[in-house]
Amino acid sequence: MCKKHDRPLELFCKTDQMCVYQFCTELDHKSHQIVPLMEGYEGKKAELGKTEAEIQQKIQERRLKIQEIKHSVELSKEDSDREIADSVLVFTALKRSVEKGQAELIETIQEKQKTTEKQAEGFIKELEQEISELMKRTAEVEQLSRTEDHLHLLQSFPSLNTPPHTKDWTEVSVHRSSYEGTVRRAVAHLEETLRKEMEKLCADVELKRVQQYAVDVTLDPDTAHPALILSDDGKQVNHGDVKKNLPDNPERFSVCPRVLGKQSFSSGRFYYEVQVKGKTWWGLGVARGSINRKGLITASSKNGYWTVWLRNGNKYEANTDPPVLLSLKSKPQKVGVFVDYEEGLVSFHDVDAAALIYSFTGCTFTENLYPFFGLYSHDGGKNSTPLIISPVNRTD
Question: Is the pTM of this model over 0.70?
Fold first, then answer.
């Protein structure tokens, strides 16, 4: 009921968003947008339907967010469990090394003491033997001195008058074993052992960690230099020494013998492995999609390439700006390439040795990254082996 006119409310004022009586439209709601009550009802009902749909959408979004958060927690728990297991493995191995080092030190000290005791036992045995001979001579001399037989004394005197031959013990002594610096040397040796073992263990753990991000990579023939020969499955590439007559499309390398992978990555982490066994020249890594592919190109990080190269069979180089020569303990037969897009990390691993070759860190990626493969001529037959994208055999 209208409180002012005490009459039923039969209209709806859209301007003031309230129900009114007809006479109210001529006074308080003059020139307002007035519609029949049913029309106002239908309009508001439709708005409520939209509101309900929006609320349901928000509910669904929040439920999905809950699932996302729970999934993130599960992944985090998996990472946490894996990290704990890896840390137990590393620290258990290091603990064994420490215990082994301690046991070897104790054994060294005990061996020194045994040597001292054995030397002392030898001296004591010699001394006791001489004492026994001297006591025997003393008894003989004492017995002779009491004899009344003049002839016997005179005949025995020459052999008994001089003491039996004995060793000069004046300069003989048992020296206490010196342990000066023993512990220090043992600890220094242990530190070196632990350092090497820790590097190896951490490299093993790191390789296992990055291998879980393995992706399937195949070569893109549309980017391949005309002299390169690609296998039908897109897993192998070699230099054919003769340029094929191929369309010079914008994606193709025109001068440098290179090829990119078909797959591109703009987020997350990915890893792949390439067999380089038997090659004297190769280049591996990733490149951004907008790189220049025509003419002579320097494959440096400044130009959008994050790569490591082998040149002349023995010269390993990271193509930073300027390049960095690498000193490797062994010649890699298979190289793993790992990228963490958000972290700006590109790392290279010697798979067989489970050793880190080099890492580009602090990189800024703003576009798609493509696996990169660089080749060279046959090098007189020395470099005829193809680069082979290999399946990843996880070490865990």
Answer: no
Residue at token pair 């946490």: 80
Q: Is 9 exposed, middle or buried (0-12, 13-18, 19+ CB in 10 A)?
A: middle
Q: Band of the pLDDT at 172, cuts 50, 70, 90? A: confident
Give the integer Cα–Cα distance in Å for 135 and 132.
Answer: 5
Q: Are 274 and 334 in contact (CB under 8 A)?
A: yes
Q: What are phi and psi of 281, to 5 degrees?
A: -140, 135
Rounded to whole angstroms, the Cα distance separating 283 from 260 reads: 11
* Percent of the chain clearing pLDDT 90 (strictly above): 44
Alpha-carbon torsion 225, 231, 237, 243, what sign? negative
| Cα pseudo-dihedral 148, 149, 154, 155, rounded to 10 | -140
Distance CA 292, CA 223 (A): 12
**3-state SS string over 263-286?**
CCECCCEEEEEEECCCCCCEEEEE
Residue 228 has pLDDT above 90, yes or no: yes
Contacting residues for 145 by C-beta, under 8 A, at least 6 apart:
none
Query: Would you state the pLDDT for residue 4?
Result: 66
The Cα–Cα gap between 195 and 354 comes to: 16
